[in-house]
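Discussion board: Methods & Data

I've been asked by a reviewer to show the raw model output for two of the constructs in my manuscript, not just the figures. I'm not sure how much to include, so I'm pasting the format here to get opinions. Each protein appears as its amino acid sequence followed by a line of discrete structure tokens. Is this the kind of thing reviewers expect to see in a supplement, or should I convert it first? Here is construct A:
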Amino acid sequence: MTLITETGTGITGALSYVSLAEADSHFAALALDDWGSATGGQREQALIRASLHIDSYSYPGRVLIWDQGLKWPRNAVYDRDGRALTGLPHALRTAALELAATFLQDTQGLDGRRAVKERIGALELTYETGGRGGSFVYRLLRQIGARVSAQTLARG
């Protein structure tokens, strides 16, 4: 598979915010052995899953080019100080790397918690503690305006 990487210009068909070479260099510098020992295909899949996760959030502004593969780059997006966010912001790229490492090490992803209590009447659901929450990644993505997409729940 050829990993098509977004460069910050709105690439059609882009699948990842970070190239495999960039990720390899980053994780080699951090001496993350799991990354280096994984196959190229496994590392590419982790980068793609990370980008898909990032794109599951809503962001302000609009896409730069109508047919780009990912949600970033965007137009009309500003940080808290009013500076325009252009290309691929540092927080976005860092989040993609953090998520890729998580997805490579944990096939269940960010939330491998199990439901330990369920009730259908009056809908109650409790999860075991200790699941991964991805809070560092979410704080990174909040810097660029990430919001959880609205979920609609209909009673039938």
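Construct B, same format:
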Amino acid sequence: MRPEILKENSVSASEEAVAECRRLAAVDPSTEPNLALALTRLSNRLSAALSPRKALVVAEEAVRIYQRLADMHPDLDDSALARALNVLALRLVEVGRRDKALFESQRSVSMRRMRVDALGDAPEGDQGQVDAHTDLADSLETLAHCWREYGNEQDARHAAREADGLRARVRELRSDHF
């Protein structure tokens, strides 16, 4: 099968998943996180299918849902919002909105950094700690990309080095665990 057909099928399947999640969320608002996750996945597929503007609109909707849920429940884990902000930053870069991309990327890094700091006393090799470090590294890589697009190579290198250091830490945590 040709790659463009695979991408179309992937987008179609994701659109169907979003439609089903919308239907469920209309009946049961507790399923809204599933809708936001489906939207984030659809955004990634639309981006891969070279539809950056559509991907951006979908990513923005996912962030709005996660942000509303975070505002309603500030005591809950906000890692899904941080992930959606990271995706949104990538979509914003794709359409040339560098200032906004940098802002959203920095928000994602800040949220994920707080999560890592909050888990500071977790035992070595704790899966939550590993996941938090991996997520922060992902956001730092996006931040490095945003800085490069913004024309700031020095800050891009700094963010990339920090991400590399975190990836090394994750490898350590995983090898200590086994």
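Answer (T.O., handling editor elsewhere):
This is acceptable in a supplement if you add a one-line summary per construct. For B, something like: The chain has two domains: 1-76, 80-178.
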